[in-house]
Amino acid sequence: AQSVTQPDIHITVSEGASLELRCNYSYGATPYLFWYVQSPGQGLQLLLKYFSGDTLVQGIKGFEAEFKRSQSSFNLRKPSVHWSDAAEYFCAVGAQGGSEKLVFGKGTKLTVNP
Amino acid sequence: DTAVSQTPKYLVTQMGNDKSIKCEQNLGHDTMYWYKQDSKKFLKIMFSYNNKELIINETVPNRFSPKSPDKAHLNLHINSLELGDSAVYFCASSQASGRSQETQYFGPGTRLLVL
User: Fold this and answer.
1) Quick one: A52 exposed, middle or buried, by C-beta within 10 A (0-12, 13-18, 19+)?
2) What pLDDT, on the 0 to 100 scale, is given for residue A99?
3) What is the model's pLDDT at position B101?
4) A1 burial class (0-12, 13-18, 19+ CB within 10 angstroms)?
5) How far is A59 from chain B (nearest CA, A)?
6) Does residue B7 belong to the interface with chain A, where contact is any CB pair within 8 Å?
7) In angstroms, how far is CA A72 from the centroid of its own chain?
């Protein structure tokens, strides 16, 4: 069964600084990988996803993520954070050829200081 | 237009009561889901339906019963509510069944508080 670890529970950055949120997965084959964002009091919105091809994936709102098979990682990055990026970020993994079940990490809360 | 909608947005109720949460999607998707997000923000799938048929049923107490009257609706009925059922319940939908690379679209959530 697949699993996801987000090592950082809470990260604080200053507005304009760069951001990297870590995600490590466990799965026996090439996984499908997702990053979702949850703004306070809202549902989840997909930022980007990877399932094949180029390992550097571009998403919405200026986010990108890189799939590194050797490190079992799918870290999310943004070069310059905006105050509106403050939210909870979830990494998720799906199984290839299996059911549509997604397994989510426990999330990383991002605080942005002015 | 709201793609995935849930009602009610907030639900406060007493232990032992029975309650329902409704979900509707207007995206024309075949598959719908219920997730539970606990107080620590951990999100876990409960059920998945494809075209009114149950596909995923995680280890959820049988007090929880999903019902899909048509492929655009997936309701969640909870009997004999317990304190531990307090959580945020999210409905989601995706285009196709059996393909976990499909993007899931989430509703705004229903915040359930059991007193």
Assistant:
1) exposed
2) 59
3) 67
4) exposed
5) 13
6) no
7) 13
Mutation target vs B (from A100, A101, A103, A109; most B CBs, 10 A cutoff): A100
Which residue carries 């989430």 as its tokens? B106
How do residues A79-92 score in pLDDT, each as one tens digit?
999 999 999 999 99
* CA nearest to B40 within chain A: A106
φ, ψ of residue B85 to 5 degrees: the values are -80, -10
Which residues, 6 or more positions from B14, have their beta carbon under 8 angstroms from its beta carbon?
B81, B114, B115
Using the 8-state DSSP alphabet, how is residue B28 labeled?
Answer: -
The residue behind tokens 């329902």 is B20
pLDDT tier, A100 (very low <50, low <70, confident <90, very high otherwise): low
Q: For residue A32, list its beta bridge partners.
A: A94
How confident is residue B100, by pLDDT bands cut at 50, 70 and 90? Answer: low
3 state SS of B83: helix
Residue A17: in which H helix or E strand, if any?
A: none
Dihedrals φ, ψ of A51, to 5°?
A: -140, -10
Q: Which residues of B touch A47 (CB under 8 A)?
A: none
